Amino acid sequence: MDAFFVSVEELFDPSLKGKPVVVGGRPNERGVVSAASYAARAFGVHSAMPLRTAYKLCPQAIFVDGHPERYRECSHQVYDVLRSFSPLVEMASIDEAYLDMTGTERLHGPPMRAAHKLHQKMKDQTKLNCSVGIAASRLVAKISSDQAKPNGVLWVIPGQEAAFLAPLDVRKVPGVGKVTEKNLHTLGIRKVGDLALLDDAFLEQRFGKWGMALAGKSRGLDAGGWFDSEIGAEEGPKSISHEHTFNEDTADMAQIEPTLARLCEMVGRRLREHGLHARTVQLKLRYSDFSTITRAQSISRATQLDTELFERIRELFRHNWKEGAGVRLLGVHVSGWADGEQQLDLMDEGRHEKWKQALAAADRMRDRFGESAVSLAAGLRGNFRERAHENPVGLPGKKK
Amino acid sequence: MEFTVSKTDLVRELSLSQGVVEKKTTIPILSNVLLEASSDRISLTATDLELGIRCSCPARVKKEGAGTVPARKLLDFVRLLPEGDITMKFLDNHWASITCGRSKTRIAGMSRESYPELPQMPAKIADIPVKTLSSLIARTQFAISMEESRFTLNGALLIIRPEGLIMVATDGHRLAFVQAGAGESGQVSQNYRALVPRKAMAELVKLADSEGADAVATFAGDDNHLFFQVGHRMLITRKLTGNFPDYERVLPKDHTLTARLQKEEIRAAIERVAQFADERSRAIRVQFTTNEVRIFSSSVEMGESEESVNSEYQGPDLEIGFNAQYLLDFLRVIAQDQVTFELKDQKSAGELRPAGEGVSDQYRYVVMPMRI
After folding, report:
1. What is the CATH number of domain A4-66?
2. Is residue A339 within 8 angstroms of chain B, CB to CB?
3. Tens-place pLDDT, residues B105-150
4. ipTM value of the model?
5. How far is CA A151 from the centre of its chain?
6. B243 in contact with A, Cβ within 8 Å
7. Which chain B residues are within 8 Å of A347, Cβ to Cβ?
8. Domain A240-382 sits in which CATH superfamily?
């Protein structure tokens, strides 16, 4: 989707159209830019940049709060449109998806026609612009959709992949970030074409296994990590986490504990959405001086209940917090999914069952009335704005 | 301080202190053993501040006094010495010289001044045969919670009554309850209940093993500590604080289904089948049908297994999931040949006991099922 968050905001406030818009929060707030309109990008504003930096670069920009619920809702609409084109759809992030179009020629016609149909239908049904990249591999499709922006369609004809990629900066290759880019630059490699000329063995020696993947990618092949899996092969998340940065550092328990409770609720909600039970709970704690600790605890009975997560997290916090020290950021992270079998509790089974039902009811209320419709009493005072992020350009995609 | 002691005596008493001594040295002196010599004995003290042990053995004391040396290093070294007498002499710099035959060694020690004092034993509450104590522990300690955060479950409840002793341990998933009749429980002068930490229980068993079969432990307790004196040795432990769960509420009262089983048969069958259970959850399915109990396991990576054993079971068919390890823990420690497995339904606790008059109330093991 093109400038997804901004486009969604424009649907709700058409006066934003064409203006420099920064989504993510107020210019004097802590936190980062979630998304920037094309007009704002012209000033050098980009997502993941601190809001204050964005303000310096473009003081005239309109700063708006993010509305994750709106984006999720629109993302669902986008998904519905995509599903009507192919049964194999993989949402790589909130605003990005891969479709396997194999075998749909008789239904949708040749690639270009299908893409235009999709492009038009997306506009009709969601009122949003998107860009479509067509290719024989996911990697090239991803890059070509990026090149097609804004609001375009680009087909890389099979066999032309290397020629298409060669003039592009290495940074355009998903997975090549700041560090790899720098390493490649020191080797004198600036364009994907330079990369493709290198010997595989050299890359492997220099970058290990990742080098082999890089060699494949430079030729337009799906290689390495996430690109090795099939479209639509649901893997599910490996961990779930939520974090919150305070607007001002705090050592006030009346602010810290409700925030932890709120984070546990958000994590618990997603655990239940995915039908997962976590065995490991981890607290992330960043002090004013940016020193950061993480402390984890394993639980004998895997859980998806907010209350149980909170009990653990609060304990971890109380044990590990340097009392009185200012806290900048808190995070709750869960992992280690348990399988279907679940050990029942001797003493707490009744209480456990009741919480499970209560939270299931709370989830249904949130589905209907929004995320803040209902909350644990402990988390009431920790109500902060949830942040959402578009998929950064350099990453292949992240599961929702 | 200077004394001469036989190697055998020293090694035996030092070994008992090893389980107590801090392995992770947060406070360096806690990895040391305190040696004190007076008249014709030396005493050895080790503590981690939670648990302490004091032992003694005869010695020829040339000069009375006290000093501390690293417990592990001392034992490792003394073990290698030839049989015979060992002479230890503490020097002004707190080091100790050890001479034995043609071996001469100096070991770095620390002043006894900073060694913590162990509390004094208050008035006796009971005299308990060590055999009884160690049998109660052996049948409950596996059910103690390994989760450190559940600190009230990191030990067992010990109830001392003139009618007999009771010990209960649980980790929230299963509960082991044992009682000893008045005949085995020794002399009890008052009712008492306390939570005994896991580590103390393990050391008590070691202590009991090193004593004769008829040895008796003198038991006492103050506000914070429990004391077990056996001959010349004393184990002192801090009590666990907090409320132990109401175990009587957990012990089921309304089982409807009972299967009687040969312990060896069912144990061996579960051990084999459990090889193919999921490694983490250890889940097995147990199916009760007329005159037969069948056990199943399956794991995506490894395969599956099933086995059946005969049983006098007459109820309706019931399939229920359990953690195999929990069942084996019980089946591996009971002395009797026959067990009963009592159940209500798929979601309620099952109960294992030794079968037979007079024994079935002495040992009760309640296990919550797994959802299958």
Report:
1. 3.40.1170.60
2. yes
3. 999 999 999 899 999 999 999 999 999 999 999 999 999 988 777 7
4. 0.81
5. 22
6. no
7. 170, 172, 245, 249-250
8. DNA polymerase, Y-family, little finger domain (3.30.1490.100)
